[in-house]
């Protein structure tokens, strides 16, 4: 049988667990090599793209066009001195990078690369394995990776590292809940948490179109999951030196570096699987070419979607500044979570009416009308609320000056610096050089 032909139907949960041992080991090895090469290529692409965006050259020394720069960095990190500060908790200090890197590799095992193909006469799915709760495995592994960051900050015995670890834990709680809620609508429409079955349910329309609010919420939260700009607060080199990995060097730092870029690929692949049809070809190609979703061609469509998301991450890093920590908390708790809960309630209501036999088109029109009314009421409320208190009534008392330390931001006022309520006294400056010399002479006597 030709390897370009489709030997069987799309993979399901029942097709996994029947491969020979050598084929399972080959899949694991291919996924490992793919992730390492993706990390090296992502580093090169990121440096070249941001260099072009910032009007500079970028890497161009190691290899042609700097292609071997990532490999050179890996060799350099491996040969650097491994410095371990005296006061650290050495056991936790060493295990923390491992706890960040290993879950990043495990998460990619449930990502489908393509349909069922023939490999040396054996029919197998282009996927490591699948589970009835495969998507929850990714969430569990991402939570385990956060443990590595938190323990790295705690064991370093450094205030900068500790603050970075605490930031990471609080940040994870803020966006992880919204990320999990964005998956609920996908599970409801797919009827499964299996990644292969979710891809199979998108044969006619992608969930990014059908469940656009869930897609937008996930795209925002996956930027927080990656700990990259604009949400790289656990590192925050402007205020925390390097954050949780300040005290790390050599291979331990390289493992944190590796985990970050593998998470970049995993988040992009998961978004492709859940919302962009996975390995299925886009609509114009799949409608014109009947064999676009057969054989090994779907691997190409999957890689194109994956690298589009990686480029999206790189583009944001070169375009947006780092947000403030309170802005991230507000975005997660006050915007993303309420929007996700309201969207889940709306989707479940539509599904219930559809199951009872109501006209789906009529339901969508009513839903669109309700959303429009809610948006108009919200805008009007904000306009009315914004006008209150902003006008100054003639004859009224002026509002009392605000305490600059109120609200959790103990910063001094800009016009008159104070320290604990007492003005800092500045010594009077002599008017002339002669008066200054007289003061010095009188001071010696």
From TrEMBL:
The gene is nuoH. It comes from the Bacteria. It catalyses: a quinone + NADH + 5 H(+)(in) = a quinol + NAD(+) + 4 H(+)(out). GO terms for biological process: aerobic respiration. Keywords: Cell membrane, Membrane, NAD, Oxidoreductase, Quinone, Translocase, Transmembrane, Transmembrane helix, Ubiquinone. NDH-1 is composed of 14 different subunits. Subunits NuoA, H, J, K, L, M, N constitute the membrane sector of the complex. NDH-1 shuttles electrons from NADH, via FMN and iron-sulfur (Fe-S) centers, to quinones in the respiratory chain. The immediate electron acceptor for the enzyme in this species is believed to be ubiquinone. Couples the redox reaction to proton translocation (for every two electrons transferred, four hydrogen ions are translocated across the cytoplasmic membrane), and thus conserves the redox energy in a proton gradient. This subunit may bind ubiquinone. It is a multi-pass membrane protein. This is NADH-quinone oxidoreductase subunit H. Its EC number is 7.1.1.-. It is an enzyme of class 7 (translocase). The keyword Cell membrane applies. Residues 434-445 have a biased composition (Polar residues). Residues 404-445 are annotated as: Disordered.
């Amino acid at each position: 049988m030709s390897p370009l032909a489709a030997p069987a139907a799309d993979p399901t949960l029942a097709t996994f667990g029947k491969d020979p041992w050598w084929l399972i080991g080959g899949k694991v090895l291919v996924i490992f090599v793919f992730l390492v090469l993706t990390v090296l290529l992502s580093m090169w692409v990121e440096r070249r793209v941001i260099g072009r965006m910032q009007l500079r050259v970028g890497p161009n020394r190691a290899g042609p066009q700097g292609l071997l720069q990532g490999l050179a960095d890996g060799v350099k990190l491996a040969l650097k001195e491994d410095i371990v500060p005296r006061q650290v908790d050495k056991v936790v200090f060493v295990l923390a990078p491992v706890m960040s890197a290993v879950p990043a590799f495990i998460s990619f095992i449930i990502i489908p690369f393509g349909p069922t193909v023939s490999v040396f006469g054996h029919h197998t799915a282009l996927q490591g394995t699948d589970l009835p709760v495969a998507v929850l495995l990714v969430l569990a592994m991402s939570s385990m990776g956060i443990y590595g960051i938190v323990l790295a900050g705690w064991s370093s015995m450094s205030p900068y590292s500790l603050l970075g670890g605490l930031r990471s834990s609080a940040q994870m709680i803020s966006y992880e809940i919204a990320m999990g809620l964005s998956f609920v609508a996908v599970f409801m429409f797919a009827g499964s948490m299996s990644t292969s079955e979710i891809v199979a349910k998108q044969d006619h329309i992608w969930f990014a179109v059908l469940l656009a609010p869930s897609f937008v919420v996930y795209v925002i939260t996956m930027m927080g999951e990656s700990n990259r700009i604009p949400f790289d607060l656990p590192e925050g080199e402007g205020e925390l030196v390097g954050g949780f990995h300040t005290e790390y060097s050599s291979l331990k730092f390289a493992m944190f570096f590796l985990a970050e870029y593998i998470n970049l690929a995993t988040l992009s692949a998961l978004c492709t699987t859940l919302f962009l049809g996975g390995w299925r070809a886009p609509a114009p190609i799949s409608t014109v070419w009947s064999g676009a979703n057969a054989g090994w061609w779907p691997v190409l469509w999957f890689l194109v979607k994956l690298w589009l998301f990686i480029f999206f991450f790189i583009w944001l890093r070169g375009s947006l500044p780092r947000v403030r920590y309170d802005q991230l908390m507000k975005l997660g708790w006050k915007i993303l979570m309420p929007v996700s809960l309201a969207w889940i309630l709306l989707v479940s209501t539509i599904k219930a009416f559809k199951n009872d036999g109501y006209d789906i088109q009529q339901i969508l029109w009513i839903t669109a009308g309700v959303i429009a009314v809610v948006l108009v009421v919200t805008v009007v409320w904000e306009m009315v609320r914004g006008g209150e208190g902003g006008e100054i009534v003639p004859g009224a008392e002026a509002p009392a000056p605000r305490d600059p330390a109120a609200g959790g931001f103990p910063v001094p006022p800009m016009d008159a610096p104070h320290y604990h309520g007492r003005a800092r006294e500045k010594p009077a400056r002599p008017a002339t050089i002669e008066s200054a010399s007289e003061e010095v002479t009188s001071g010696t006597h």
